[in-house]
Structures are given as structure tokens and as C-alpha cells.
Design brief:
Elements: E1 2-6, H1 11-22, E2 26-31, E3 45-48, H2 54-64, E4 66-71, H3 78-83, H4 85-104, E5 110-116, H5 139-158, E6 161-167, E7 169-171, H6 189-197, E8 204-207, E9 219-220, E10 222-224, H7 225-240, E11 246-250, E12 256-257, H8 258-269, E13 275-278, H9 293-299, H10 307-320
Parallel strand pairs: 1-2, 1-4, 2-3, 4-5, 5-6, 6-11, 7-10, 8-13
Antiparallel strand pairs: 9-12
Helix pairs in contact: 1-7, 2-4, 4-5, 6-8, 6-10, 8-10
The structure holds nicotinamide-adenine-dinucleotide.
Nicotinamide-adenine-dinucleotide binds near residues 33 and 116.
Length: about 325
């Protein structure tokens, strides 16, 4: 019995692979390595290949006795998805269909899927519950909503059971500083703040400081990467115990503003974060944070680490890995 982790050499995947191995799961990673890092796997078994290769997926599942899949493999750059939508439809949506078909040929029917809070677009009520309207505002977000629905249909046609985890903002690095987010391609706020603080990029641009929030900047829900990894371990257990297909908001339930991140970084690093305030950016929701009630009742999961612990771990990692994994 083992777990196939697609995209396992990426940011969230590598922390989840580590958490799975720490809880005695046998793991095999399938990753093209286009955006992944071998060093992040800490010796876990890697097969370099594409989820679009159905025969490879079937072979892998058979040869490794795979019974469950955690499916991270996807592109995730919102801006790029609007400029090159075909890459996103093919990799994220068609790729997921190929993965499921390849897995079904080997009898594998339990899947934990990396979805995103972006499926709700700009939420109309706060905190965001799972029954908030599905209203994607980018091609990327639409691919996540589509795959959730496709997995639902595979439940009806083939008995697939899926846990779609709608992540809010994954952030931070492992507490021991061994793995973290390689900032080479990252567009996420915390790596950008760290990079600017360490003099590796121009000042951070804050998009709007006149929003109706406490300090005028946008508010998001940040979850520590190790808490997020733990949600996957629990979701696999839930499916193994016979759990039905479900979508869950995986967030802390706490909103933090852009200036909260900047000020926490200054406090923890002892450095000044260079930033400049620019105009609002089109399409940015003002405030989003999760209602974590359902994920707690379904998986027994809740965020255990604070914003300070997120920033501390991110600072420890980035300040000692100026070239990321350097691979
Ligand atoms: N980072 C976040 O805050 C966040 C939030 C919501 C959802 N997600 C989703 O979580 C998943 C993982 O995100 P991440 O931040 O770890 O991204 P990442 O880019 O670090 O990891 C993705 C990995 O998938 C691999 N990959 C891409 N296409 C592939 C394919 N066709 N076959 C095999 N491997 C492929 C890449 O090489 C990379 O290693 C993605 O599906 C992303 O959309 C991330």
C-alpha cells in the first residue's frame, strides 16, 4: 500500500511527502520537475514524468501497490493562466482526467485534490464557507472548480471518492528550516517580502492602502505549510475510512493584512522591509478568510501555528537559502 503524490517535488507537495513519510506511509512522487526540486524530496522516491501519461500512471500504481493519490500537479500562476489559458486547460484539467483514467485502470479510486479558495472568486460573505457560490475569476481558478466537478462525476460513473482541499494561502517553511518555498518562480506575498528584505529584489509593491479594512490593505488567510501538509495526511485517512467525496476550506479562520505581514517580518527579522504603496490591482478580493468549521468536523483538523510562526519559519528558510534549492 502506498500513496502516489503528483507534483510532490513542489512547495506544498514536498512538505506533504515529508509528513506522509513521517507517519509511515510509503510514497512515490510523480513530477515533471519543471517547477519541482529534487532536494526538497529528502530522498523520497521520484519518478520523473507527466500526469498526462496515462500508461505511466497505471504502471506506477501497479508496480508500487498504490491505493491512494494526492494530486498537487498543476500550474498555479493566475496571471499566466489569463495569457496562456490553453496550458492551464491542458495541464490542470486534461491532466487531471488523464491521471484519474490512468489510476482507474489500476483500480485506484481515492484522491486528495489540491483545490483553491479562488474557486469562490470574490466572496460575498465572510468567513467563506464551502457552500459559498462557485464563481472563479481566472482561468486558473476555473480549472480548480472544473476538476472538483469532474471528480464528482467520476464518483457517479466509476466510484471515485475525492477530498478537494480548498487551500487559502499556504505559507512558511518547515519548522526545522530543512525545506521551504523556493522563491525563483513564486508570486506569493511572503517570499516577495522576504526577498525584498534580503535585498534580492526591488521594494515590495502594496496594491492599495485605501480599502475598507483596519489598515487599508487587503486581508488574507495564511496557513503554515506544515499544518497544510497535515490536512492531507488526515484527508487520506478520511478516504481510507470510507469517507464520501467532499470539498473543504483549509484555512486558519484568521485574516491578516499585507501590512500585518510586513510588520511581523520587521519585528521577527529585525530588518526594515522596503515597500511602496501603489494603486489597487484589478480583481483583488478585499478580504478573504476561511470558515474552518467543516474541515474541523470532517478531518479533526485546525491550524495550530500562528502568523508569527509562519513568518519565523519563512525568515529562517529564506535568509539561509538565498538561491532556493540551488538546483
Ligand atoms: N501555493 C498556494 O498557496 C496554493 C493555493 C491554492 C492551491 N494551490 C495548488 O496546490 C498545488 C501545489 O501548489 P504548489 O504551491 O506546491 O506549486 P508548485 O509549483 O511548487 O508545485 C507543483 C508541482 O507540480 C509539478 N507539475 C506541474 N504539472 C505537472 C504535470 N503535468 N505532471 C507532473 N508534475 C507536474 C511541478 O513540476 C511542481 O513540482 C497546485 O495544484 C496549486 O494550484 C496552491
Amino acid at each position: 500500500m502506498s500513496v502516489l503524490v503528483t507534483g510532490g517535488a513542489g512547495y506544498i507537495g514536498s512538505h506533504t511527502v515529508r509528513a506522509l513519510r513521517a507517519t509511515d506511509h510509503a510514497v512515490v512522487v510523480l513530477d515533471t520537475m519543471e517547477l519541482g526540486h529534487r532536494a526538497a524530496l529528502l530522498g523520497a522516491e521520484l519518478v520523473v514524468g507527466n500526469i498526462r501519461d496515462r500508461a505511466l500512471v497505471t504502471d506506477l500504481c501497479r508496480s508500487h501497490g498504490v491505493t491512494q493519490i494526492v494530486h498537487f500537479a498543476a500550474y498555479k500562476n493566475v496571471g499566466e493562466s489569463m495569457e496562456q489559458p490553453d496550458r492551464y486547460w491542458l495541464n490542470n484539467v486534461a491532466g487531471s482526467v488523464d491521471l484519474v483514467e490512468g489510476a482507474l485502470a489500476a483500480g485506484v479510486k481515492e484522491i486528495v485534490f489540491s483545490s483553491s479558495c479562488s474557486v469562490n472568486g470574490t466572496p460575498t460573505t465572510m468567513p467563506v464557507t464551502e457552500d459559498a457560490p462557485i464563481s472563479p475569476e481566472s482561468v486558473y481558478a476555473e480549472t480548480k472548480a472544473m476538476v472538483e466537478r469532474i471528480l464528482g462525476w467520476y464518483g457517479i460513473t466509476h466510484g471515485v471518492r475525492a477530498a478537494s482541499l480548498r487551500y487559502f494561502n499556504a505559507a512558511g517553511a518547515s519548522t526545522d528550516g530543512v525545506i521551504g518555498e523556493d522563491w525563483t518562480h513564486s508570486q506569493n506575498l511572503i517570499p516577495l517580502v522576504m526577498k525584498a528584505t534580503l535585498g534580492k529584489r526591488p521594494p515590495v509593491r502594496v496594491f492599495g492602502s485605501d480599502y475598507p479594512t483596519a489598515d487599508g490593505t487587503c486581508v488574507r488567510d495564511y496557513i503554515h505549510i506544515e499544518d497544510l501538509a497535515d490536512a492531507h495526511v488526515r484527508a487520506l485517512r478520511y478516504l481510507r475510512d470510507g469517507g464520501d467525496t467532499v470539498s473543504l476550506n483549509v484555512g486558519s479562520g484568521v485574516g491578516s493584512s499585507v501590512l500585518d505581514i510586513i510588520h511581523a517580518t520587521e519585528r521577527i527579522s529585525g530588518q526594515v522591509v522596503p515597500y511602496e504603496v501603489g494603486p489597487r490591482r484589478a480583481g483583488d478580493p478585499v478580504v478573504t478568510y476561511a470558515d474552518p468549521t467543516k474541515v474541523h468536523t470532517t478531518l479533526g483538523w485546525s491550524a495550530t501555528r500562528s502568523l508569527d510562526e509562519i513568518i519565523e519559519s519563512a525568515w529562517r528558510w529564506h535568509s539561509t537559502h538565498l538561491d532556493g534549492f540551488a538546483d
